[in-house]
């Protein structure tokens, strides 16, 4: 029996710091309604979808807590979960997670998967946290490591009504290990949210490649791991910083099946043929037959190339 | 001081089974001369550059040995090594390797790296050997596993006059682990040879994607591992089978810097800026800082996704 899952990438335009959370949630509900009316069964929202991308600033301790969610859903985000149940559509959403563990505050850049019943189906905490804890000379300020610990949940894969779903956030999508780990854990679909600046002051000569470098690793990740990918950007001029769009749905062939054309709130939908996964595996990627896990040791043994090189 | 290395991808047209090895070597020498005259310092030839892609047939035992090299260089291939020394240009070449080990014949799909002094600088044996040992119903005959053992040398990286060179062959380029292993072993440049049929009878609906699936993983592999890649196809109608071309030089940005347009003997050259590697690492890929090798365990623990899936 053919298996299908209609996916929606719900891009948002900027979420300014001055916006209220309630206003932002109403925008997300409108996007979810649009996705559902186009037949989507599962939608993805951006990373940090509820707030501005605040790691672009050094903030005072007193300013920080208001930017995190202490509970999901909370009173202000509950309408989104209610909409999911009302519309019968699931979603994944990126948010700043603030959690008490053993009496200590911990903060993660997280994504939550919610089923069409409005209940949580899974949670992911961003594994590849880029940037720094303090501003670094000559680079665009990017303080994700100031505001978030690296994820501590690994690369989990969740059952979603018979389809296996993995989650990833922004910088995770640049690393081939993200897709491979999710593939080996059984994922068929990966949902990604991101915030990607158009300009980095450390690399003005590479600025024209930002969209290419957005799509390239996702297309290769989809192809090399026979995955469907739905990826949603927060786009446009957010609190003075230009973010790229390019939200998309990528097939296991690596082809972009659908993509956003604006830098604003926009939904792209594709009816994903899940059987294409097996068809693609049959051509080149019979993993169990051809991969050589015993020969990939360096991947888990060292983080980067050796400082000193010795020819064998 | 800026570092440069001028690379050449020496694509060949078909090498028919009826061709003599001496004729083929003369073609390769002509390509090497063309590469050297364009300023190239290092050239790459295709996989199995000296013969037809014979794994497309079931051959009789008595027919096989003539298709392998028992020594490199041998009397017939020596002119290529002499040309390298005369021209002051190194090269890598794919060939069928037949070697006696402990009184037993072993066969590998190999690539040899030769310095501008005409001496061997390194050898690689294809790690990801695709296909089967017997024809399989419904698929294009592809018997690499009949004729070659999987490589037993891992993913070595060789010093080439101060630049670190990795080698890979054909199917290797589809697997992200190939590039990652070479990156982590210190490679700056990867030389790839390939033979890729245009049509696979098991996947007629994907035939139009063969060139996309050639370039996509190399572009992503270059970008995600900050590598230069030079890749050479054996192209054109070889003994009745159409092979794609698309030989190319890919930058660490993932951009194709130069590519072949024909299905014939053709040289593409690019003066590679080796400093671009560090520039690309500075933007997204500070490996030592951001990779999480302790969390990639599945990559070395299992070959493929689990048969039975359990949600966490």
Automatic annotation (TrEMBL), chains A, B:
InterPro entries listed in its UniProt record: Aliph_Amidase/BUP, C-N_Hydrolase, C-N_Hydrolase_sf
Record-linked PROSITE patterns: CN_HYDROLASE
Keyword Hydrolase recorded: yes
Family matches, as Gene3D superfamilies: Carbon-nitrogen hydrolase
One function term, GO molecular function aspect: hydrolase activity, acting on carbon-nitrogen (but not peptide) bonds, in linear amides
Keyword Cell wall biogenesis/degradation on entry: no
Origin superkingdom: Bacteria
Keyword entries, A-Z: Hydrolase
Residue ranges occupied by any CN hydrolase domain in the UniProt entry: 5-276
PANTHER family documented for this protein: NITRILASE C965.09-RELATED
Protein name (Swiss-Prot/TrEMBL): N-carbamoyl-D-amino-acid hydrolase
Organism from which the protein derives: Lichenifustis flavocetrariae
């Amino acid at each position: 029996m053919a298996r299908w899952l209609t996916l929606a990438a719900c891009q948002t335009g900027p979420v300014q710091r001055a916006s209220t959370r309630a206003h932002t949630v109403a925008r997300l509900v409108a996007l979810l309604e649009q996705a559902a009316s186009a037949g989507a069964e599962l939608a993805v929202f951006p990373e940090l979808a509820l707030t501005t991308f605040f790691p672009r600033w050094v903030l005072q301790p007193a300013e920080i807590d208001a930017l995190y969610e202490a509970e999901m859903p909370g009173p202000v985000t509950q309408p989104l979960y209610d909409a999911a149940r009302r519309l019968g559509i699931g979603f994944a959403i990126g948010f700043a997670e603030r959690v008490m563990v053993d009496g200590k505050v911990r903060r993660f850049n997280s994504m939550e998967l919610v089923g069409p019943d409005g209940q949580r189906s899974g949670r992911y905490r961003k594994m590849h946290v880029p940037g720094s804890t303090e501003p670094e000379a000559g680079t665009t300020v990017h303080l994700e490591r100031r505001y978030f610990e690296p994820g501590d949940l690994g690369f989990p894969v969740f059952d979603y009504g018979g389809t296996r779903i993995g989650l990833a956030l922004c910088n995770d999508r640049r690393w081939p290990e993200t897709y491979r780990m999710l593939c080996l854990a059984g994922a068929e679909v990966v949902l990604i949210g991101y915030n990607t600046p158009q300009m980095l002051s450390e690399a003005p000569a590479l600025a024209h490649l930002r969209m290419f470098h957005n799509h390239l690793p996702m297309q290769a990740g989809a192809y090399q791991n026979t995955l469907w990918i739905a990826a949603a950007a927060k786009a446009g001029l957010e609190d003075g910083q230009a973010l790229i769009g390019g939200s998309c749905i990528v097939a296991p062939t690596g082809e972009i099946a659908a993509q956003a054309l604006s830098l604003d709130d926009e939904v792209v939908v594709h009816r994903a043929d899940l059987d294409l996964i097996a068809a693609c595996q049959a051509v080149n990627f019979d993993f169990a037959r051809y991969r050589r896990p015993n020969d990939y040791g360096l991947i888990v043994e060292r983080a980067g190339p050796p400082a000193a090189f010795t020819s064998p």
